[in-house]
Amino acid sequence: MPFAVTVDLAVFTVRGGRLHVLLIRRGQQPYEGDWALPGGFVTPRESAESAARRELAEETGLAPDLVAALHLEQLRTYSEPDRDPRMRVVSVAFTALVADLPEPAAEGGGDAAHARWVPVPEVGPLAFDHAVILADARERVGSKLEYTCLATAFCPPQFTLGELQAVYETVWDTALDRPNFRRKVLATPGFVEAVPGAARLTGGRGKPAALYRPGPATALHPPLLRPSEGRTP
Amino acid sequence: MPFAVTVDLAVFTVRGGRLHVLLIRRGQQPYEGDWALPGGFVTPRESAESAARRELAEETGLAPDLVAALHLEQLRTYSEPDRDPRMRVVSVAFTALVADLPEPAAEGGGDAAHARWVPVPEVGPLAFDHAVILADARERVGSKLEYTCLATAFCPPQFTLGELQAVYETVWDTALDRPNFRRKVLATPGFVEAVPGAARLTGGRGKPAALYRPGPATALHPPLLRPSEGRTP
DNA sequence: TCAAAAGTGTTTTGGGTACACCCATGA
DNA sequence: TCATGGGTGTACCCAAAACACTTTTGA
Lengths: 233, 233
Known about the structure:
- Chain A has helices spanning 48-60, 64-69, 130-147, 161-172, 178-187; strands at 4-15, 18-25, 35-36, 39-41, 72-78, 89-97, 115-119, 192-200, 209-214.
- Chain A has 233 residues and is of the alpha+beta class.
- Chain A has 2 domains: 4-145, Nucleoside Triphosphate Pyrophosphohydrolase (Alpha-Beta Complex); 148-214, Orthogonal Bundle (Arc Repressor Mutant, subunit A), CATH 1.10.10.10.
- Chain A binds chain B through residues 1-5, 41-49, 74, 76-77, 79-81, 88, 90, 92, 189, 221-223, 225, 229-232, and chain B through 1-5, 41-49, 74, 76-77, 79-81, 88, 90, 92, 189, 221-223, 225, 229-232.
């Protein structure tokens, strides 16, 4: 039973108030020239997660230390017999969240030249079953924000509560009440920690905002539920 | 890159107030004679989920229609290079929940003769990395009960609210307040539906209980949280 | 002095918890 | 008539929602 095993990555970031996903343009058959999720084959002596980090670094030119520190999470495994026209390929999909990067991520050499951040609503048809993987990943990210502290992964090392709220609003595509969001976040022990004395002007205008960094907590109890959910309209 | 792909199943049931998992005794090397989760190789023309159902039917002698209707959920994929001493094996793990079965499930021929329901606390060492898979699956089942309607999968087609509560209490290993549990369940639209006119005596003693069947809902909003969680003691 | 964004306070409301109590049945 | 389990009622509490309000900056 000769199976090939691959990994596929759905890497998200928030940039300019919109959710983006990292895509590469395929340089070879099949689906040559089409957009696809980054990924590749698992080699004989590595786990799927190791392969995911290796491929991400190779294909996108993201900084190695960033890739090593990245929060990677297994999404699920896709194993339909005909998902790859060449042969039988089983693919383990991962999701990752990164902060908006100073420069367009994908300026490395080789493969990396074909990597791009694409706003999720503007993503067109993708190679293989990657559209399904992307949809699953997007859904997962949305619900992860509800009951984990993962939203800080979308933020730079130090961030304002306004930026954190923008992450939620972008991923969920809803508006949140600022005072209530603030209270909720600060009331969850270990979600964020104040950076003593620091403040930053966010958009040039307005009052400078206090800076926070991620705290030690990973779970959110009680959860921070999406507004439209949990209600019976 | 010659990989073998397998499936492993963590099938749970509640029996006599205790959580049980379905195990088989291995009839061949490696780990011959040890207990293991049911599972087996994915064949070239089937998906992992199909393979899981097929293997479950073959190895345990569960009724085919029951296996076909079973709620199977992908847990995650285990891909450490040395998890199988023979060769490189990547395994897709699934969880399933079934109602307590009239007879000990495993009375079919062949492989099935070696299948047994084992109380989870009494499970000893398992073959391969199955102890890890079992622990992951158990954790997943516990949290699934919080925010999905899946608990009914542990119950027969018609059940009392007392039986449903016993499922929660068994899986979570906590006592729940009956009046509050009742209100909560009935207040969630589509979780359970009353079976008109029906009632059943549960243990010979006590008032006959009304019967319910699973409703159309799948998610639980708001969630039914475990007592110890969500509090800061 | 105005717009924009941060941050505080207050009222209301709904769900969860705890617990007291009644009902129907078998022994 | 008593133990057992099903079912109802109710008072309390806390956290979330809604919204009015103050503060600090750049233009």
